[in-house]
């Protein structure tokens, strides 16, 4: 039986006294999977993982994605996407401006990610030693459940276009990004997914859209589409649906991309260093 401490939000739970560097038996692992499906975000404190151990544990969940931004992957580990503001020889070692907008990882793919496994190697702190650079997670399940029945009926059957280009080229106040290559554009054409998604493992319904990559509602004119999306973006990230994670070095956090969206809080800058590494689970087409 896992020792679990739930957050006060509708999502988020800590699993205590667990060492992910050790081989876990199948029963314990199965319970961890069940707790992710229940809580949508789970985390483990005080982990000490090599890149090999991070990848090995992640592979127990399924196949891993290789991110389209190869320049941001850890050398020798195409499965590990680096999120960091650290510079080496004047060049960034990873994505410096990831997660500034609410989003779900790989929602712009035909088969979006099932989940992400994020390891905190360096966490910035303020002048008082308090960690900064939190991440906020919003439950699409809770957001959908709180909708009026009339809205649920209106949204049933609607699809939304998710666009990697929309998110990639947004103003992030960090200077322009290098243009996408033809290979990157070919890998990430715009794709339409249901606005209300059914979770592939639990069967629960959730809102599946986000301000970062969702561009339009299929079948609606631009003004009606923009108005509906603006209302749903605001609703889906209301404070009562959000868990805010304050990072510590050694945190290993897993989130469910089928039912949540997330956003980074950028309240730090160099010389405050942040170094995180993410593996990303392959998923299935939303329905």
Description of the structure:
- With 287 residues, the chain is α+β, with helices and mostly antiparallel strands.
- Helix content is 22%, strand content 27%.
- It contains seven helices and 18 strands.
- The chain has helices at residues 26-39, 51-59, 140-145, 149-155, 164-168, 182-187, 222-236; strands at 3-6, 13-16, 41-44, 73-74, 77-84, 87-88, 91-92, 115-122, 135-139, 159-162, 191-194, 196-198, 205-207, 214-217, 242-245, 252-256, 260-264, 275-280.
- An eight-stranded mixed beta sheet has the order 1-2-3-16-8-18-5-4, with helices on one face. Strands 15-9-17 form a three-stranded antiparallel beta sheet. A three-stranded antiparallel beta sheet has the order 11-10-14.
- A hairpin with a 6-residue loop joins strand 12 (196-198) and strand 13 (205-207).
- The protein is globular.
- The model has no long low-confidence stretch (mean pLDDT 94).
């Amino acid at each position: 039986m896992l020792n679990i401490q739930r957050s006060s939000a509708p999502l988020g739970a800590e699993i205590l006294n667990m060492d992910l560097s050790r081989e876990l038996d199948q029963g314990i692992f199965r319970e961890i999977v069940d707790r992710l499906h229940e809580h949508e975000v789970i985390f483990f404190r005080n982990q000490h993982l090599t890149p090999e151990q991070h990848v090995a544990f992640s592979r127990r969940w399924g196949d891993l994605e290789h991110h389209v931004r190869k320049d941001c992957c850890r050398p020798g580990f195409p499965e590990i996407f680096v999120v960091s503001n650290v510079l080496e020889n004047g060049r960034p070692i990873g994505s410096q401006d990831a997660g500034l907008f609410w989003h779900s990882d790989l929602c712009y793919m035909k088969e979006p990610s099932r989940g992400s496994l994020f390891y905190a190697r360096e966490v910035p702190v303020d002048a008082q030693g308090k960690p900064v650079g939190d991440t906020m997670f919003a439950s699409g399940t809770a957001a959908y459940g709180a909708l009026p029945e009339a809205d649920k009926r209106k949204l049933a059957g609607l699809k939304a276009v998710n666009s990697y280009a929309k998110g990639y080229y947004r103003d992030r106040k960090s200077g322009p990004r290098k243009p996408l290559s033809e290979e990157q554009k070919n890998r990430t054409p715009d794709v339409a997914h249901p606005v209300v998604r059914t979770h592939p493992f639990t069967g629960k319904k959730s809102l599946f859209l986000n301000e970062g990559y969702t561009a339009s509602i299929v079948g609606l004119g631009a003004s009606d589409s923009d108005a509906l999306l603006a209302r749903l973006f605001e609703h889906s990230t209301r404070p009562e649906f959000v868990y805010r994670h304050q990072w510590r070095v050694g945190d290993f956090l897993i989130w469910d991309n089928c039912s949540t969206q997330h956003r980074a809080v950028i309240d730090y800058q160099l010389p405050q260093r942040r170094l995180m590494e993410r593996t990303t689970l392959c998923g299935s087409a939303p329905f």
